[in-house]
Design goal:
three-stranded antiparallel β-sheet, mainly alpha, Arc Repressor Mutant, subunit A
Length: 730
Amino acid sequence: MSELGARASGQGRIFQTSGDQYIEEHHHHYGAGAGGPLFGRAAGPPAGAGPTAPDSVRMPLVGRAPGILRDREQLRETLGAAVAGSGGEVHVVHGMGGCGKTALAYWLFNEAVREHGRVGFWVNASERMSLRAGMLAVAGDRGAEAGELAAAAAGRRAAADLVWHYLDHSSDPWLLVLDNADDPTVLESGAWLRPSDRGTVLVTTRHATSPLWRGPGVHRHALGLLPLEDAAQVLCDLAPEAGDLEAARKVAARLGRLPLALTLAGSHLAHQLLESWSMDEYDRKLGEESTLIVDQGAAGRGGSQSRHLVGRTWQLSLDALAQQGLPEATTLLRLLSFLAADPVPLSVLVPVARGELTVDGLEPALRPEQLEPALKGLIDHSLAELVTVDGVRCVRAHGVLLDSVAGGVPEDRRAIVETAAASLLEAALPGEGSDSPAARSRLALLTPHVTRLLGVAADERTATLAVRVLRQVYESGDYAGALALAPTVVEAVRGVLGAEHRLALEAEHLQGTALFRMGRFAESEKLHRRVLERRETLLGADDVDTLHSCAALSQPLDLLDRDEESERWKRRALDGYRRVLGEDSREALFIWCGLIEVLPQLRKEQELEEEGPALLRACERALPPDHPTTILARHNYAYGLFEFGRHEEAEPMARQVLADRIRLQGPDHPLTLSATSLNARITHGLGRTDEAIRMMKELSEHRARVLGREHPFAAHDRAWVATWQAEARG
């Protein structure tokens, strides 16, 4: 009786499988007393004998023989040396589905047989029955008699001992490939996996962490993705007419350099009938339809087998995990599939494991006590890996895998998965106003996942989340990152909520501020003026968002040397904030800082003398210690004193500002660099020219690294250095 409750009688047979199983049977009928070819003179196969031996164990059982094997030089050298040597080693090649483990084994098999004169054996180790039948066939090849094989097949003799006896006494050196050993329990606690002085064993598996791989004489080798150049060359090998190497690089990068996906894509491009896509067109299709289209390359080429389909290869491992009592692994991978292929901090999942955050509606439910076993299951089966980024432990899955899994989420479940993913990201993001280096690092890790979620599940919630992240990226000082992110967020939010929605205007406002910080002042002014006009029309002149636009517009005008106009917009914003939000509101104090900055350029020293100290007192009264606006107030007041030649007064305040910036925001924050510039210029004003030149040279290099060499502020740094050096030369 089978585990499924099926029964067999007489010559009936039961086959069960949790993965790939290809069974071919030949039935031969003999008269009384006649012996079958395997079981001697018995009246037929003994009860429980198991499946018929495979037609061959001397040929690699691969659905599609690989062509040119790209890269893998170091591992090929290691394995080649093993089959050229005296034997006695077991080599385990582990990696995710589709990374080319079987292709590597195929290469080694041919290398062993053709170049080193070894007998090659190839056994499908994906299931107990296929492994047992294949290994008994190997024993038969090495001289085991029919009676011995029949006894082993019937369970009257230890099958593994019989096989290894004949392998150990083989007259010829051999290579034994145990392919697709993704479930190590099939190897019966190692009974089927042994070293032998007469040969070399190669195991291919997705299971990365089995204790069997740590036994004596066992060597583990992780097989990863192809380097970009080799991945591109695979496409050119398969479809040389579809495009050049540069076009192939783009496709290879989008496919994540996964050999199976590259093979299918190349096959698709090389065997099109009705259409003839170039690699550039294929790349565009991947962007529009996701990487799910790669499976079209399997049509007509034996691609119905699950292991040869990107969209199915992962499911084999998930099915195995479910049978091991971990159906939650599928739930977890579905959640990850709505995020990016970038590393996901484990801290994102911790609130669920602790029961602090509940993600409702998922099937199977992601129970707190099952989260860690599910994660370990994904890692064990090479569906995910642990990586460390800037000291943060993360989990990462391949982009093609994530696309495949996301595409397979049923339509009636997608909203539930989307909501759960959004909840995880909302809880993981730093709090508003967090500006420590640790918070900025966490934000940088989470930003790609918010962008991905916005792309696969755009609605008001994800749009709100994306704008929040855009604001935080800008406020963290990553102005280049904010500028790169802004167009995607703006387009998505407008698509979901419309161009006139308050949130869409906020996204454009943030894009304008990022343009300003990156030195693109004219573009910033144009965008802020357009957003201001729409906000005035839709929201009114005294709406807080309209006042934000007034304040933001004043900034590029200041650096475009339109100081009077800049002052007018600053004062309008300041008056509005005081009227709408209060004299000591954070918004009013912040724009007051901006007014202090423009007064020296208008040569209004008396107003600076009155307003600067008043601003500092207001900040100290209304804001907590170390608030960014308080530091900005000191920064801008010190700048004003410097502009009016009051260097001795400015120096201690400027030095304190620089120390505060470094302590609170880190040495690479653009505002820290701005404080450094002010200190260098004050130092020069005090007559310490050599010290000032040294400071400004270091700043110039630092600012170019952070903001880019072409940023106007970096150019100003270089100009000051040149001027001061000329002065020093006399």
